[in-house]
UniProtKB/TrEMBL annotation:
<keyword id="KW-0547">Nucleotide-binding</keyword>
<comment type="pathway">
    <text>Purine metabolism; GMP biosynthesis; GMP from XMP (L-Gln route): step 1/1.</text>
</comment>
<comment type="function">
    <text>Catalyzes the conversion of xanthine monophosphate (XMP) to GMP in the presence of glutamine and ATP through an adenyl-XMP intermediate.</text>
</comment>
<keyword id="KW-0067">ATP-binding</keyword>
<keyword id="KW-0332">GMP biosynthesis</keyword>
<keyword id="KW-0658">Purine biosynthesis</keyword>
<keyword id="KW-0436">Ligase</keyword>
<protein>
    <recommendedName>
        <fullName>GMP synthase [glutamine-hydrolyzing]</fullName>
        <ecNumber>6.3.5.2</ecNumber>
    </recommendedName>
</protein>
<dbReference type="GO" id="GO:0005524">
    <property type="term" value="F:ATP binding"/>
</dbReference>
<comment type="subunit">
    <text>Homodimer. Also forms a small population of homotetramers.</text>
</comment>
<feature type="domain" description="GMPS ATP-PPase">
    <location>
        <begin position="2"/>
        <end position="206"/>
    </location>
</feature>
<dbReference type="GO" id="GO:0003921">
    <property type="term" value="F:GMP synthase activity"/>
</dbReference>
<keyword id="KW-0315">Glutamine amidotransferase</keyword>
<dbReference type="GO" id="GO:0005829">
    <property type="term" value="C:cytosol"/>
</dbReference>
<feature type="binding site">
    <location>
        <begin position="30"/>
        <end position="36"/>
    </location>
    <ligand>
        <name>ATP</name>
    </ligand>
</feature>
Length: 331
């Protein structure tokens, strides 16, 4: 007789048993549902012997690093280190336009930063007062059941391409073993688990956000200025979607910064500024998707707020492409 409550109890017991009385675990968190639920579960099982690391790659949404810190560390008590590596990421991304190159740079830099932080934590736990308090033996992965199936049957490119899963160096150099507490669960079960673990509803129901972040939503070179413009426009867009009560009706919504300039008139001045494209889709599995039909007044409000409040933007367009032939992301 399987219930989520009994799953939690059994999984916590299993984690305690495999970690033993001293074993420590590290894991990356992103602010997404899976990594947050996995982190909270580890915290329930072994407390501060679970170390979460969040890498700020400079292409997160507005205030995201601060918000994830507040939620995981302050509200949920998870032992969390936030590493601000935005300078390094943005330096490596400078002048890169090719989408796959952006993905590779972000994936590889993520691994570099995560590995360095992991070995710092490992040394710290060993050296404290000269006692071997425990050391990192395990790496947490928020792998879900569909990922397990997919890696077994190896069907090729997946609906969500997970750059973050490539942490082979850690497994080899630090001799870490994998711990995967969500490996038997589907996405909706992870959400149910999150609710039982007191993870806030707005996080549990969050739209997916890609590992390469805003870098694949800035068409053209990624600079701090471009990131700021897109963060601001995206923030307004999502805020108005929530205000209109539409967030849970949409599978994924986000803004895209186009690499073109257009002429406009603001006040009595001619402007020559950038263009924001809005994307909102409904989808079962993200293999196919339909564009979302907004009430016109919601689009009107969003457009007027973005052009008034985001400096550097004078035009807003709405993407009416389905997948296929479009993809969900523009890059
Ligand atoms: P596409 O654009 O392929 O997107 O139709 C389908 C889903 O996958 C997400 N996506 C990614 N997620 N790393 C990720 O973690 C990526 O490189 C990546 N590319 C696309 C996208 O946001 C959508 O949910």
């Amino acid at each position: 007789n399987w219930t989520m409550e009994s799953f939690i109890g059994k999984e916590i017991a299993r984690i305690r048993e495999i970690c033993g009385p001293k074993g420590c675990v590290i894991g990356a968190v992103s602010g997404g549902v899976d990594s947050s639920v996995a982190a909270k579960l580890m915290h329930e099982a072994i407390g501060d012997r679970f170390h979460a690391i969040m890498v700020d790659n400079g292409v997160l949404r507005m205030d995201e690093a601060v918000q994830v810190h507040k939620m995981l560390s302050e509200d949920l008590g998870v032992n969390l280190t936030v590493v601000d590596a935005s300078d390094l990421f943005l330096e490596r991304l400078a002048d890169v336009e090719d989408p796959e190159k952006k993905r590779k740079i972000i994936g590889n830099t993520f691994i570099n930063v995560f590995e360095e932080e992991a070995s710092k934590i490992d040394h710290a736990t060993k050296n404290e007062r000269g006692e071997a308090k425990g050391e990192i033996e395990w790496l947490l992965q928020g792998t879900l059941y569909p990922d397990v199936i997919e890696s077994i049957s190896f069907k090729g490119p997946s609906a969500t391409i997970k750059t973050h899963h490539n942490v082979g160096g850690l497994l080899k150099d630090m001799k870490l073993k994998l711990i995967e507490p969500l490996r038997e669960l589907f996405k909706d079960e992870v959400r149910a688990l999150g609710r039982l673990l007191n993870i806030p509803a707005h996080l549990v129901n969050r739209h997916p956000f890609p590992g390469p972040g805003l870098a694949i939503r800035i068409l053209g070179p990624v600079t701090r200025e471009q990131v700021k413009i897109l963060q601001h426009a995206d923030h307004i867009y999502i805020e108005e979607i929530r205000n209109a009560g539409l967030y849970d009706k949409i599978s994924q919504a986000f803004a895209v910064l186009l690499p073109v300039k257009a002429v406009g008139v603001q006040g009595d001045k001619r402007t020559y500024e950038q263009v924001i494209a809005l994307r909102a889709v409904t989808s079962e599995d993200f293999m196919t998707a339909d564009w979302f039909v907004f009430p016109p007044e919601v689009l009107r409000r969003i457009s007027s707020r973005i052009t008034n409040e985001v400096s550097g933007v004078n035009r807003v367009t709405y993407d009416i492409s389905s997948k296929p032939p479009g993809t969900v992301e523009w890059l």
